[in-house]
Amino acid sequence: MVIILLAVTQIKGKAQDALSTIEQTIADIFEQYQQEVEEELDFNNFLEDLLFVAENPIDLNRATREELEKLPFLSDIQIENILYYLYQFGPMQTIYELQLIDGLDMTDIRRMLPFVVVHPLKKENPKLYWHDLLNYGKNDLYIRLDRKLETKRGYLSISPEKNSDVSSKPYLGDPFYNSIKYRYHFRDKIYFGFTTEKDPGEPFLDKIQTNYDFLSGYLQLNNIGKFKTIILGDYRANFGQGLVLRQEFSMGKSSYVMNVIPRGSGLKKYSSTDEYNFFRGLGTTLQLGNTEISAFYSNKQIDGDTIQGCFSSIYKTGYHRTSNEFKKKKTVNQQVVGGNLTYYFPHLQIGATVVHTLFNHFLEKEETTYNHFYFSGNQQTTGGINYRFRWKKLNFFGETALSNHFSWATLNGCFFSPFSLLDIVVLYRNYSPDYDTFYANAFSESTRINNEKGMYLGAELRPIKNWKFSAYADSYRFSWVKYRVDAPSFGNDYLLQVDFSPSRMVNMFWRLRYEEKQENLSQDTSIMSFVVPLRKASLRYQLNYVAGNFSFRTVLEGNLAQKSEEASWTYGLTAYQDLSYEFRSFPLRLDFRYQFFDATSYENRVYAYEKDVLYAFSIPMNYGLGSRYYLNLRYKFNHQLSCWLKFAQTVYADGRTTIGSGYELIQGNRKSDIRFLLHYKF
Amino acid sequence: MKKHFCLFFVLSFSSLIFSQISYIVPSSASIANTSVSNTHEWTAFQNPAMLGYGENSEIGLQYENRFLLSQISTSSFQALIATPVVNSDISLSYFGYSFYHEIIGAVGFGRNFSNKFSLGLRFNYYAAYFSASNSYRGILFPHLGFSYRFTPNFSIGCSAFNPFQMNIKTETAEKQIPSVFSIGSEYYFTPELIWLTQLDKEISSNYRIATGFEYQMLKAISVKIGAYTAGYLVPCLGMGLNFGNLKLDFNAELHPLLGLNSFVALRHSFRK
Asked: How confident is the model at residue A280 (pLDDT cuts 50, 70, 90)?
């Protein structure tokens, strides 16, 4: 009985550790990334993959590189070291052997524990039987409902005297967000699922929109004979370093300074709610000995502002709230065909990827200086060769790609671990201004993979027990003008992070970042804008501690920004306290945060990752003066049914009487969100 | 009328240069008002998490004479009830004069969890008298507090007074209630010498940075020295007298522009 209780406690603890580790990883990686891209990020697949690994831990003694790459907090050197240890000493007898592996400190091991085992939990029968699929397959149903409590301008009648006329409201639908997700999986063999979504303001079940605005579904079969993967429906494709094709998140600059190359190659089911970035059709990967061959075809309608058989841009937000947005819906047909061939040798991996895209309309961009080299036309072919090889202590990686008119891009780098306490990575990239392809997503400063050359140097040092020093320096140059930068420009970015983990219950870090890049400065007196340096320095102190069923996080962050040499420095400050508590005798967990922010200038804006209902994410950007707080509750009715509820509110104290702009404008100084999610497992 | 006009002028002027608009929050017995992480001292209307560290029930009175003006001085009463499960307090404070005055009443709860950390929550009811309408207007708002003890010598604390920025709205005006976010640390060099630091931000006012040392010279006497800045650097001095169950605290600060601010607190504890 005692053993059962202990096991249950351990599993429960592990599940909680997994979620905490995932949340911390997302915060570490995406907070900085969000700051750079300033668009809504899609973490769904990232979270789904990690939750799957938490439920089906990796057996370290049989782990492949591909499996270990699913753990984003491990660097490539650490993965190499784990594999090398297993190769050198054979299977591990206990999980404690992880401490003997070079380059893994206690923080890394603690992060790994929820996701790995030394022996498989149970032996799997490789054969498939219908009754196994029905009886042992896992089903998950998620129903989510969100709403902002304040009324946005888009929901108000434009002409007050015509209040009764519903069509006079700019937004055609109601302010509720709703999504339904169904997932089925049988081990790692079969995945099936569908997703429906309605964004706030979109019409639903009426004359304009008779069902959900977004519908998506997939069926993925793994390891069926020679077929490693067969996918039907919606999926994503990722190959090489991302210069040709990567639709999932690609690692970039973050406090995980060694994690600079993307993880997880191949074709993968698409289960998120992003309405643009996926393929719809058929894909397959064939494994023939050391060779993998992938081929895929996609045919889907995408949104564009089509006029007289041409369109000037692809509309990627997925919002269809107003009649103008509705007119853009599914107006362009996009067909994509492509493939990848990868050879695996003991110390070498080499692959080639080709993608061809065909539109039924001509993409004719609105010509400006910054987009002079952007793609125009109705078809594009991109191809690239990628490699990885190990030579002694050096791990080389890279990819070189060509697109239409022989525009090119190359990325090459090397990991090096001169001794076990130190890891170094060097990465050089050079993307020509005219290299503009639709699905590239590789290491870069900007979101578009073109018009950039730069050198990145990262290092991680573990000189003393419980201490870790991470640093990177990145220097980059844009040889052509960019959006809001009317001249060739350059920039430098530096980060230093010191982690200290005195015990299992307490850890903290100090993160110092300095960035200098160039931007346009528009002044009333100048005829045209001129380019000036924008400097920003930030310092964050974060403290995490656990005491019994309580866990706490205290964060203090300050930044300074200067726009142009003559301008004065402006500051931004934020401080917040998180408190989480899981009741012992009651299946309720609560997360509470109170945050204060004081960042009067947009350049000083601050970001903070928030806990949320499952599969919802928020890293809200705050600037101005005010406070924000949220309460996130999770209640488990039983082992099948659970629900989440979150309430968050931002209150500004800088005298503003409205928040936002355009149809998103809210009257008052408060904005409030409420979210609800129901999860049913069967 | 002349008196009221002068008073109005002084109040307006002091509110401009005295960084915090948090008059209504009575000061604490901690030097330079560094109470947010002061684990050995509980004061009404300060970090409610400190309630959790209280070992004995207490009752006390305090008076703060702000810049030698009785009209803007605060008088407070406080009582702590210590129980094995949760400690609670009741407090009341008055500030103002017949034509305008403010009253806060509060009931708080705090608990110390295994001497590792303490959590506190206080419900404040604030009421102001508006002579124009000859009526009181009030509002209820919380005060959240937290303190974490890293080691027996070092702890941090933070609190949020009126975290949701509740204000009183009348037909003619809006009365802003201070919303104060505080964070600070406490360090014991020796059991007799404590170093306290604190950063306060009232949402519409300047930052206030404060630090102070408290030294227990003799069993019955302690001295305090500190300073805070919020535009002006304000030196602070204080003294504590301990007569068994009775404790008397004197604090004084000298604002370079507004002058002397003095504070006295008398407390009686009911030792178990």
From this structure: very high
For residues B125 and B163, is the Cβ–Cβ distance under 8 A? no
Q: In terms of pLDDT, which residue wins out, B215 or A305? A: B215
CA distance A460 to A499: 11
Distance from CA of B203 to the nearest CA of A (A): 7
* pLDDT at residue A339, as a whole number: 96
Work out the mean pLDDT of chain B and round it to a whole number: 86
Of A547, A575, A649, the CB nearest to B117: A547
* Residue B9 is assigned to a structural domain of this protein: no
CATH of the domain at B173: 2.40.160.60
Host domain of residue B45: 30-270
pLDDT attached to residue A123: 62
Q: In this complex, which of B117, B144, B160 lies closest to A550 when CB atoms are compared?
A: B117
Residues in A whose CB is inside 8 Å of some CB of B read 506, 545, 547-548, 550, 552, 554, 556, 575, 577, 579, 594, 596, 598, 625-627, 629, 649, 651, 653
pLDDT score for A72: 84
Is B191 contained in some domain? yes
Predicted confidence at residue A6, as pLDDT, reads 39
Q: What is the DSSP string of A278-290?
A: SEEEEEEEEEETT
Specify the pLDDT at position A240.
93
Residue of A236 and A120 predicted with greater confidence: A236
CA-atom Rg of chain B in angstroms: 18
The pLDDT > 90 percentage for chain A reads 54
Mutate to test the interface with B, among A503, A508, A550 (most CBs of B within 10 A): A550
Region A564-587 average pLDDT: 90
**Ramachandran sector of residue A308 (left: φ over 0; alpha: ψ -120 to 50; beta: rest):** left
Does B19 fall in a domain? no
Of chain A, the percentage scoring pLDDT greater than 70 comes to 93
Give a yes or no: residue B3 inside a domain: no
- Retrieve residue A326's tokens: 């509705």
- DSSP letter at A587 equals S
Residue bearing tokens 């009232």: B202
Nearest C-alpha of chain A: how many angstroms from B140? 17
What secondary structure letter does DSSP report for A97? G
Structural fold of domain A165-457: Porin (2.40.160)
Interchain contact, A653 vs B165, CB within 8 Å: yes
Q: How many domains does chain B have?
A: 1
Per-residue pLDDT averaged across B143-148, rounded? 93
Which among A269, A266, A295 has a CA at the least distance from the CA of A283? Answer: A295
Q: Which of helix, strand or coil describes residue A604?
A: helix
pLDDT at B208 exceeding the cut of 50: yes
Query: Which of A552, A598, A629 has the CB atom closest to B148's CB atom?
Result: A552
Pairwise CA distance, residues A173 & A144, whole Å: 17
Q: What tokens appear for B49 in the block?
A: 């998490």
What's the pLDDT score for residue A7? 41
- Chain B residues closer than 8 Å to A630 by CB: none
What is the β-pairing status of strands A116-117 and A58-59?
Answer: parallel
DSSP bridge pairs for A224: A227
Contacting residues for A269 by C-beta, under 8 A, at least 6 apart = A191, A193, A218, A220, A231, A233, A234, A235, A236
Q: Which regions of chain A carry the CATH code 2.40.160? A: 165-457
- Are A510 and A498 within 8 A, CB to CB? yes
Q: Are B86 and B111 in contact (CB under 8 A)?
A: yes
So what's the ipTM on this one? Answer: 0.79
Pick from A575, A577, A651: CB nearest B165:
A651
Q: Six-digit token pair at A200?
A: 């706030």
